[in-house]
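Onboarding guide, step 5: your first structure request.
Type a short instruction followed by the sequence, for example:

Predict the 3D structure of this protein.
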Amino acid sequence: MGRGIHRGEEGALTTRKTPKLLATCKPGKEEQAEIEILDCLLPYDHEIDVERAEFPGVLLVYSSLQPFEAYRRLKRCPKAYIQAITPIQVYIRTSVDEILKSAIKLVEGVLKPEDTFAVRCRKRGKLIRSSVEVERVVGKAIMESTGAKVDLENPQYVVVIEVVGQNTGINLSSARNPNPPIT
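The system replies with structure tokens like these:
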């Protein structure tokens, strides 16, 4: 059985590991990027796992580290093949409704009316019609829910939505301090 939510022996829903990072590399360089990730994070997590997504150049990183801790540690390592790293705080099945609900839940209690934010969506696959549509719908719902204002040029926070086929990863990060120190 794959990772995610599945039915246990008694039929109850149980949670299995979900990815903590999404990393990208040039298509065809996945093996080298996997090695970079493992070399960097293995000293901090002996059970780390890297899987190739169904799309070329996309890797999912499973770790016992928190998403932003794994992100910061990987950002500090020398990289020749990894092009981008995205922390994943929420990992859901892909649908506009699920993305909307999860994004609102993620920002509640964090974004205040005086804050500014932007929504950035990257779409891989065909389950979502348009990444721009997702950005607009989620942005409008967050404005209505929190009172925060959209600022596409200089936001304080960024809601990142990574659609990877049937699954979607979401995070909320500070746009002005993307690499806070590890505590």
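Each response can be followed by summary notes, for example: The chain has two domains: 5-87, 90-174.
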